[in-house]
Specification:
This protein is mainly beta.
């Protein structure tokens, strides 16, 4: 009977011996180890008292370096989810944060804490984390402390054995002292240090002390991605007639190719081939050039199309230097007896902001379109977009649009509007104008109808010329006339007009034609701050612009008399009107 009972008990006990805990939350017994070949993940998280989390001992491969942990605790943040992980950025020391795991983390657990205690613990450990693939540790660092300027060595951390295309971050405490330098990384032997594309002849100081640099092994040498010394020697010398070159300031006058500009800080000195458009230096620093008329083919300007930069003009287009604070780039448009006899302002700016053109240098610029700003536009072709590099573009409202014409005024192009709906354009990014200053260079073709420069929805500001009087009109769109100028315009004639209006405060208006005051007065009419169409009345009336526009500049405020003079001078030098 005892034998039978013992046999039955043995059979009943067999499944119990084989069964092991199958969940992360089940108790862990010493017997578990043999079912994972003696290896366990370590870092087992369990709740301690209050907000304390216990972590058991563990071992991790931390981006190629073995890190051990002798067990310890972490304090959780109350009333939130805590993320417990090994920090690869800190030698895989256990850490906790309240934001989600990232690729550089080795996850341990997600721990939810109440105000005073740890509640659930979600164990997210795995033995199958591949060290280095998502650690975020980056390249190994190898630091030389040999004290030698010719033969250096270092031990990379994390450790690796260099093979072809291996890279690391290299630093040294000693600047190289000669034309050759060797580096022994991790005991593979002394290898030459080379410039990035294989030249192993260095200059002293090419590898400076305490400056990290990426070094890559090509199987023979260590190539540095950056090198310490800048190029030496003079510069800026090109053969006569060379094109596409580049020159730089070398501290003294030198020969420059025909299409390169350089500021030498002294007298103009450009060596260029005959009859090749050249570019002068900034003559604002050349005391020997007091007037651009003194520039001849013998010293710098060689042909029509040459450019000169002036830093001290009184206005945009001023050819006498030393009389103001306008910085301008002038293009020679005619030669007489070897000297430039006519100039056109290519670009202007204030000296205080040398990279800013004159119109943009004045605050409140709302719109600025110039026919010369049209990119890659050919003569007598439809212009579907009037591009502006400074303000919003204009777009045609149909498939034809106005016509781009070259050589219309002062050898510059203009945009021709047909006086029909085909030429209408809309402003891509409309700006409200209940106060304004408008400059427009235009040529009216006829006065058979009202011709609008710009308008908007009902109540917006509108500028046009009157069909019956041939005068400029300032109006409230589709509502009432604000003012009519007294100057009578002539068809097929180029004009420069300036119109100001304060529709918010004073109601003051003023008209100027070709740089001279024409009429002014006061009529306060509330204006809707919305102007969004060009060359027609947005309300659909037959007021399409008939004629040409070379340039139009609009500010969203009334400019001062000095600012108006500055812009008019810019337009005068460019177009010849005003």
């Amino acid at each position: 009977m005892k034998r039978i009972l013992g046999f039955i008990l043995a059979i009943v006990a067999l499944p119990a011996l084989a069964q092991q805990p199958q969940t992360q939350t089940a108790p862990i017994f010493d017997a578990n180890a043999k079912y994972v070949n003696g290896v366990a993940p370590g870092y087992w998280p369990t709740a301690g008292s209050g907000l304390t989390l216990n972590l058991s001992a563990g071992t991790a491969n931390c981006s190629g370096t073995i890190a051990t942990y002798a067990a310890g605790t972490l304090t959780m943040t109350a009333s939130t989810t805590n993320y417990v992980y090994l920090s690869t950025a800190s030698s895989c020391v256990p850490a906790v944060k309240t934001t989600a795991f990232v690729a550089a983390d080795i996850p341990i657990a997600e721990v939810v804490a109440s105000g005073t205690a740890i509640t659930p613990i979600t164990d997210v450990r795995t033995m199958y984390f591949v060290a280095g693939t998502s650690s975020g540790a980056g390249l190994s660092v190898c630091a030389d402390t040999s004290g030698s300027g010719t033969a250096q060595s270092c031990t990379p951390s994390p450790a690796f054995t260099p093979t072809t295309n291996s890279c690391m971050i290299y630093t040294t405490t000693t600047t190289n002292s000669g034309t050759s330098l060797t580096l022994n990384v991790g005991g593979i032997g002394a290898k030459s240090v080379a410039k990035w594309q294989g030249a192993i002849t260095l200059a002293a100081g090419d590898v400076p002390a305490n400056k990290p640099v990426v070094a890559c092994y090509d199987g023979a040498d260590w190539n540095l991605s950056t090198i310490g010394n800048a190029p030496t020697g003079g510069g800026g010398s090109f053969p006569s007639g060379a094109t596409g070159g580049a020159a730089y300031y070398n501290g003294s006058a030198g020969a420059i190719s025909s299409d390169v500009t350089v500021d030498q800080g002294g007298t103009p000195n450009l060596a260029v081939g005959a009859n090749v458009p050249g570019i002068s230096i900034d003559n604002g620093q050349a005391t020997t050039v007091s007037n651009l008329s003194t520039l001849t083919t013998s010293n710098s300007i060689l042909a029509v199309g040459s450019f000169v930069r002036v830093t001290d003009g009184a206005y945009c287009g001023d050819t006498a230097t030393g009389s103001g604070s306008v910085k301008e780039t002038l293009e020679c448009t005619a030669l007489t007896s070897g000297s430039c006899s006519a100039w056109s302002a290519f670009a202007c700016s204030n000296v205080a902001s040398p990279s800013t053109p004159v119109p943009e240098s004045i605050s409140g610029l709302a719109y600025w379109w110039g026919a010369d700003q049209a990119p890659a536009q050919t003569n007598n072709t439809a212009m579907l977009r009037w591009y502006s590099p400074f303000t919003g573009n204009m777009l045609t409202s149909n498939s034809s649009g106005p016509t781009f014409l070259t050589n219309q005024l002062n050898s510059l192009p203009a945009v021709s509007f047909p006086g029909t709906s085909a030429g209408r354009m809309t402003i891509q990014y409309p700006v409200g104008l209940n106060q304004s200053t408008t400059f427009v260079v235009f040529n009216p073709a006829s006065f058979s109808a009202y011709c609008d420069f710009f308008s908007g929805a009902t109540g917006a500001l509108l500028l046009r010329f009157n069909q019956t009087t041939a005068h400029l009109d300032l109006e409230k769109t589709f509502t009432s006339t604000i003012a009519t100028d007294t100057t009578t315009l002539t068809a097929s004639t180029w004009y420069g007009a300036t119109v100001t209006y304060d529709g918010v405060g004073t109601g003051n208006y003023a008209f100027r034609v070709n740089g001279a005051a024409s009429s002014s007065g006061t009529n306060l009419v509330a204006i809707t701050a919305n102007t969004s169409s060009v060359a027609y009345n947005q309300q659909g009336t037959n007021e399409d612009f008939n004629g040409s526009i070379a340039e139009i500049i609009v500010y969203n405020r009334v400019l001062t008399s000095g600012e108006i003079t500055t812009v008019e001078s810019y337009l005068h030098s460019k177009w010849g009107v005003y």
